[in-house]
Amino acid sequence: MELYCDGTTKWILNVTAKELIIVPNDPSATDIVENPLGFLTSLNKGYEYPSRVTSISTNGKQLWIIDLTPVNKRLAYKSISVGVEKNSYIPRMIKYIAKDGSSYIINITGFERVNTLRPKDYFKFPSFRLTGLQVNDMR
């Protein structure tokens, strides 16, 4: 899955199904799938987390795993785990466990720090990739 968002519109690409869903962006949403930035800014008030984190080693990197449980039990998921590299604090993994028990793991293979602002078009789905996709525009 690929996600693009320019602050106004969100493009969700299911690569396997060759489907692109276009929806308006809701900046007030705090669900990690709906709005990753909103999720990160809601961590101090919307989640319970243990006083200690666990530590694992994966792909030669030491990670801290922070298990988060939403305070609002009506959300679509029952827990989220975030793996952060110990030495750099770079996020490397997110595990999302839905209420139905299914789990989704996002492995972050690249993280680039940039010191300059990107143009807004950088965050839009590239139109040249539309060929062969089923597009559902729900704006």
What does this structure look like?
This protein has a single domain (2-115, 122-137), classed as outer membrane lipoprotein receptor (LolB), chain A (Clam). The chain is built from two helices and ten strands, in the order βββααβββββββ. The chain has helices spanning 36-41, 43-46, and strands at 2-5, 9-14, 19-24, 47-48, 54-58, 61-70, 77-85, 91-98, 103-107, 134-137. Strands 4, 5, 6, 7, 8 and 9 form a six-stranded antiparallel sheet that branches.
Gap between N and C termini: 20 Å
Helix content: under 10%
Strand content: 35-45%
Q: Helix count, per DSSP?
A: 2
CATH architecture type: Clam
Q: Rg from C-alpha positions?
A: 17 Å
| Uncertain ranges | none
Indicate the multimeric state.
single chain
Q: Which class do the helix and strand fractions yield?
A: mainly beta
If you consult CATH, what is the topology? outer membrane lipoprotein receptor (LolB), chain A
In CATH, what is the class? Answer: Mainly Beta
Sheet with the most strands?
Answer: 6 strands, antiparallel
Shape: globular
Would you list the SSEs in sequence order as H and E? EEEHHEEEEEEE
Brief summary:
This protein has helices at residues 36-41, 43-46, and strands at 2-5, 9-14, 19-24, 47-48, 54-58, 61-70, 77-85, 91-98, 103-107, 134-137. It has 139 residues and is mainly beta.
